[in-house]
Amino acid sequence: MSIQKNQRGICPHCKTQNRFEVAIDNRNCEFGAVYLRYGLNDLLKELETCRCTNCGRVIIFFDNVMIHPLGATRPPCPEQVPTEIANDYNEACLVENLSKKAGAALARRCLQNLLHDQGIIKSNLNEEIDEAIKNLPTQLGGAIDSIRNIGNFAAHPIKSLHSGEILNVEDGEVEWSLDVLEQLFDFYFVAPDNLSKKRQILNKKLNEAGKPELK
């Protein structure tokens, strides 16, 4: 669904939470939406624009698909995520609205690289998910388990060297994969890093007070 004026959301340009306004053309006239004839059957497709109130840049949608800028309206990958994993995630977000199958393949590869980073290495992604679930909270375990239904890849287990295989996906499946990856990023990387920083701050205060540090 496209972003409309007076709505709030994350700008795909500046990645901040802002309100969007109607875009203005070179004659200082509002340019919100126009219907264009498309294809040999002259189907009407909507070209819609809006403008971020923070950075002033324009977002363009065609038939509810964002065509400028390329990419998804998702927050940036957390800085704590290793580069190789972050690259797969960012690329999956980049093609999320352009190719669902490619986005799902990149998300699946990102998931497998994440599990390998955690020392979970099996003969295929199915087995790696089974191993990961053992040490995940119930809700997050159920979320990662559901990824196996995407593209029905559980019907033909994907080997470690073929995690980027292209499979057909249904509407909403790639979005769900990326949502789950964001939760896994928080669990494996962001939350432990934040806890470690808080522990360091507290230990500094304890040390200054002449008290033993937390173990």
Large-scale geometry: flat
Beta-strand fraction estimate:
15-25%
Radius of gyration based on Cα positions: 22 Å
Low-confidence stretches: 154-163
How many separate domains make up the residues? 2
- In quaternary terms, these chains amount to single chain
Would you write up a description of this structure?
This protein has 215 residues and is α+β, with helices and mostly antiparallel strands. The chain has two domains: 8-68, no CATH class; 83-199, no CATH class. It is built from five helices and eight strands. Strands 1, 2, 5, 6, 7 and 8 form a six-stranded antiparallel beta sheet that branches. The longest helix has 36 residues, at 173-208. The chain is flat.
Topology:
Blueprint: E1 8-10, E2 17-21, E3 23-24, E4 30-31, E5 33-38, E6 43-52, E7 58-62, E8 65-68, H1 83-95, H2 100-117, H3 125-133, H4 138-146, H5 173-208
Antiparallel strand pairs: 1-2, 2-6, 3-4, 5-6, 6-7, 7-8
Helix pairs in contact: 1-2, 2-5, 3-4
Key attributes of the depicted protein:
215 residues; alpha+beta; 2 domains; six-stranded antiparallel beta sheet; 5 helices; 8 strands
Short summary:
The protein is an alpha+beta fold and 215 residues long.
